[in-house]
């Protein structure tokens, strides 16, 4: 699982807004029988950013998600994706934050039964720059 | 006594002939069944920690994962942390209807105080429009439980009973008649 990111923060009044673009390469079928067995209806994949700030000990923000139905191509090869959702912090904790961890996780939705949440192995640490970016548009 | 099914005319004859003692016996049997069901339900509430351990999905806002009529099994353990990606069932203050959506943002303080935002998978926007006037975040106290397991379609019965009360009364009447008239051989 590989991710490359480019990011910057923009001044948005009271809270920091982060902009992240990323590539995701993932092969959900790594294991022998794959994760899509007879009782798996779909996977809900999501990319979340986890970080700490002065204001809050733990923050998690879902940046992007995708529903993968049984039968869909199990290989993800996304390039230059923009985050689907606004990456607002609760305060100004993104500026200069050196340690934002991006992780790909998924919720297995069975045809019937337990709903497990799985975190993918492989995560990427991303630093945000110290200054606000005002020239780039999104 | 007879153990096989009897034709309808005979049933009414039976009712008249059943003496008081038999009737009380049947009523007690019925009451026991109802009490056992209630005890199981209360037991579930205790075990799962949720005030409503089984809920029926009412809307299509979590499709294609859950559809209207699906049954969800919840737990609400106090020490379970709320994390992004989890499916939670919550109630907006002042409203009765629980909502089943996914957590997409959390901000948690060192002391464990957490505020989070939810969104239905099938909705374009997050749930802020559903929260109370001026409310931007949900808190632990709003959570009814976390979705741990699910069964499709089974909850449809509850929806039909809610939408068509006549069906509910008919069902109760049939069940009551069955239990009262059923005789042990």
From TrEMBL, chain A:
Keywords: Endoplasmic reticulum, Membrane, Signal-anchor, Transmembrane, Transmembrane helix. The keyword DNA-binding does not apply. Essential component of the signal peptidase complex (SPC) which catalyzes the cleavage of N-terminal signal sequences from nascent proteins as they are translocated into the lumen of the endoplasmic reticulum. Essential for the SPC catalytic activity, possibly by stabilizing and positioning the active center of the complex close to the lumenal surface. GO terms for biological process: protein targeting to ER; signal peptide processing. Its main location: endoplasmic reticulum. It comes from the Eukaryota. Pfam families: SPC22. Belongs to the SPCS3 family. The keyword Ribonucleoprotein does not apply. This is Signal peptidase complex subunit 3. InterPro entries: SPC3. It is a single-pass type II membrane protein. The gene is Spc22. It is found in: Endoplasmic reticulum membrane. One of its GO terms (cellular component) is signal peptidase complex.
Automatic annotation (TrEMBL), chain B:
Component of the signal peptidase complex paralog C (SPC-C) composed of a catalytic subunit SEC11C and three accessory subunits SPCS1, SPCS2 and SPCS3. Within the complex, interacts with SPCS2 and SPCS3. The complex induces a local thinning of the ER membrane which is used to measure the length of the signal peptide (SP) h-region of protein substrates. This ensures the selectivity of the complex towards h-regions shorter than 18-20 amino acids. It holds the Pfam family Peptidase_S24. One of its GO terms (biological process) is signal peptide processing. Catalytic component of the signal peptidase complex (SPC) which catalyzes the cleavage of N-terminal signal sequences from nascent proteins as they are translocated into the lumen of the endoplasmic reticulum. Specifically cleaves N-terminal signal peptides that contain a hydrophobic alpha-helix (h-region) shorter than 18-20 amino acids. It is found in: Endoplasmic reticulum membrane. It comes from Rhinopomastus cyanomelas. InterPro entries: LexA/Signal_pep-like_sf, Pept_S26A_signal_pept_1_CS, Pept_S26A_signal_pept_1_Ser-AS, Peptidase_S24_S26A/B/C, Peptidase_S26, Peptidase_S26B. It is an enzyme of class 3 (hydrolase). It is a single-pass type II membrane protein. GO terms for cellular component: signal peptidase complex. It catalyses: Cleavage of hydrophobic, N-terminal signal or leader sequences from secreted and periplasmic proteins. The gene is Sec11c. Keywords: Endoplasmic reticulum, Hydrolase, Membrane, Protease, Signal-anchor, Transmembrane, Transmembrane helix. Residues 46-132 form the Peptidase S24/S26A/S26B/S26C domain. The chain crosses the membrane at residues 23-41. Belongs to the peptidase S26B family. Its EC number is 3.4.21.89. One of its GO terms (molecular function) is serine-type endopeptidase activity. It comes from the Eukaryota. The lineage of its organism: Eukaryota, Metazoa, Chordata, Craniata, Vertebrata. This is Signal peptidase complex catalytic subunit SEC11.
């Amino acid at each position: 699982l590989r991710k490359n990111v480019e990011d910057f923060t923009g001044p948005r009044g009271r809270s920091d807004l982060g902009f992240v673009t990323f590539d995701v390469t993932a092969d959900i079928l790594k294991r022998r029988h794959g994760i899509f067995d007879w009782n798996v209806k779909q996977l809900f994949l999501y990319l979340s950013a986890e970080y700490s700030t002065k204001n809050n000990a733990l923050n998690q923000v879902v940046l992007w998600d995708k529903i993968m139905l049984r039968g869909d191509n199990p290989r993800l090869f996304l390039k230059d994706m923009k985050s689907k959702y606004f990456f607002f912090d609760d305060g100004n904790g993104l500026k200069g934050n050196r340690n934002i961890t991006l992780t790909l996780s998924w919720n297995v939705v069975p045809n019937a039964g337990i709903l497990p949440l799985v975190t993918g192995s492989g995560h990427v640490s991303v630093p945000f720059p110290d200054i606000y970016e005002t020239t780039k548009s999104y | 006594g007879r153990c096989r099914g009897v034709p309808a005319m005979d049933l009414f004859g039976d009712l008249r002939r059943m003496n008081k003692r038999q009737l009380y016996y049947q009523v007690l049997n019925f009451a026991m069944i109802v009490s056992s069901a209630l005890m199981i339900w209360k037991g579930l509430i205790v075990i799962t920690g949720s005030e409503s351990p089984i809920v029926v999905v009412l809307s299509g806002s979590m499709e294609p994962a859950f559809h209207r009529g699906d049954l969800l099994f919840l737990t609400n353990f106090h020490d379970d942390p709320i994390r992004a990606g989890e499916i939670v069932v919550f109630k907006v203050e002042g409203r009765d209807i629980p909502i089943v959506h996914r957590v997409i943002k959390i901000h948690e303080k060192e002391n464990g105080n957490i505020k989070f935002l939810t969104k239905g998978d099938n909705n374009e926007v997050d749930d802020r429009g559903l929260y109370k006037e001026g409310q931007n975040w949900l808190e632990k106290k709003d959570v009814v439980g976390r979705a741990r397991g699910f069964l499709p379609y089974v909850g449809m019965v509850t929806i039909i009973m809610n939408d068509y009360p006549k069906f509910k009364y008919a069902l109760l009447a049939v069940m009551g008649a069955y239990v009262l008239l059923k005789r042990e051989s």
